[in-house]
Amino acid sequence: MKKRIEHLIFKHFDEHLTDEEAKELVEWIENGNREKFDAYTDLNFSIESTKNEKHRGNPSLWQNITSVINNPRPKVKSLHYWRYIAAASVVLLVAATFLTDKTPPPAIVTPTNPDINKNILIGSDKATLTLEDGSSIVLEKGKNYTTDNIKSNGEKVTYKSTGSDKGNTTKVSYNYLTVPRGGQFFIELEDGTLVWLNSESQLKYPTVFLTGKPREVELIYGEAYFDVSPSTEHQGAIFKVHTNEQEVEVLGTEFNIKAYQDETFIYTTLVEGKVLLDNKIQKEFLNPNQQLVLNKETKNTVIKEVDVNYEVSWKDGIFSFKSKPLKDIMKVLSRWYDVDFTFLNPKLETIKYIGALNKDQELEEILSIIKNTNFINAYEIKENTILIK
């Protein structure tokens, strides 16, 4: 019975409960097992702080959880749902191998190590803004920067047209926003398009979009989430995002592009609307909940259905993984915490995990959670390199 319930709980975390399984889980919880259920969800202190701050005066956490279990899966447009679920009840990481029942269930232990390595910093809002003349401005929390058409409070940068610059059809000025490892940043372009930049990313864009001309930006490398201002608000001007290997044309939509230099594939995920991708060999349309994977070496493409919540939750402060190999998870963590990982046992790289992690957690707390799954023996921190044993 214990394995059955644990199986249902992790299926709930992975959003794959059937109606009958959901009823079974709710009946078990309401039959005097609410505390046991909480033991699975309260894996670290960040959950408790989230409850205290975000749910004060609201219905009980239990009511919210049962509501999630009982109600149909939300539409992808409500992406804040995923952030809420991760903060309230899914801030954990478990080996997906456990779901096959081939191994004993992992120990559910809250990390309590008081000697957490404070030399490894949690990522934060920071970026470098490079202007047309080549000068650079460091943007970070607590530092303001303002010009006639640029304003930054250290957490985001906003561009506004001065009016006369829209009519200048002879020259376009470009700026670069570069986010280092251990950083993230938000930008509002002059046309109202919103862009979230992930760690180790760079975006090139015009300071103003000219009237009657296509609105074009370039994701030079990294990952970015775009919420594009509709073309109907800009005299029909289309919006294009260029990368080294492809061009994405949109009319007004939300999508994510992941195009890191050290990765073989470019992932374009459509959340809402419609986009056309052109890699100079073929053109493909994407519909919501679809992801196009482009092999940069062979130029081959594959379109697949995905749960977009897992693909874009990073912009809402959550790392979410759905049967991801540990090697891929460590690559994500390396960019956010600006560290490197080395696997002393290559077999550990392929262990798959599901779950979500709060980006405000200390890295060592996350490593402790992974260790408590009993699939890795230990980890060792040597300056900015983590050895996985």
Please tag this protein with its features:
389 residues; 8 helices; Jelly Rolls; single chain; Phage tail protein beta-alpha-beta fold; 24 strands; 2 domains; alpha+beta
Structural description of this entry:
The chain is of the alpha+beta class and 389 residues long. It folds into two domains: 1-118 and 318-389, 3-Layer(bab) Sandwich (Phage tail protein beta-alpha-beta fold), CATH 3.55.50.30; 124-306, Sandwich (Jelly Rolls). It has eight helices and 24 strands. The protein has helices at 2-13, 19-41, 45-54, 61-70, 80-89, 308-312, 326-337, 363-371, and strands spanning 92-95, 124-130, 136-140, 145-146, 150-152, 156-159, 174-179, 183-188, 194-197, 201-206, 215-227, 239-242, 247-250, 254-259, 265-272, 275-278, 283-286, 290-295, 301-305, 318-325, 340-343, 352-358, 379-382, 385-388. The strands form three sheets. The chain has a six-stranded mixed barrel. Strands 1-22-20 form a three-stranded antiparallel sheet. Strand 12 (239-242) and strand 13 (247-250) form a beta hairpin. Helix 1 (2-13) packs across helix 2 (19-41) and helix 2 runs antiparallel to helix 4 (61-70). The longest helix has 23 residues, at 19-41. The protein starts with a helix and ends with a strand. Residues 42-91 and 98-114 have low confidence and may be disordered.
Largest sheet: 6 strands, mixed, barrel
CATH architecture of the largest domain: 3-Layer(bab) Sandwich
**Which residues form runs of ≥5 with pLDDT under 50?**
42-91, 98-114
Strand arrangement in the largest pleated sheet: 2-7-10-11-9-8
| Gyration radius, in Å | 22 Å
Shape, please?
globular
Domain count: the total is: 2
Average pLDDT value? 79
Broad CATH class of the largest domain: Alpha Beta
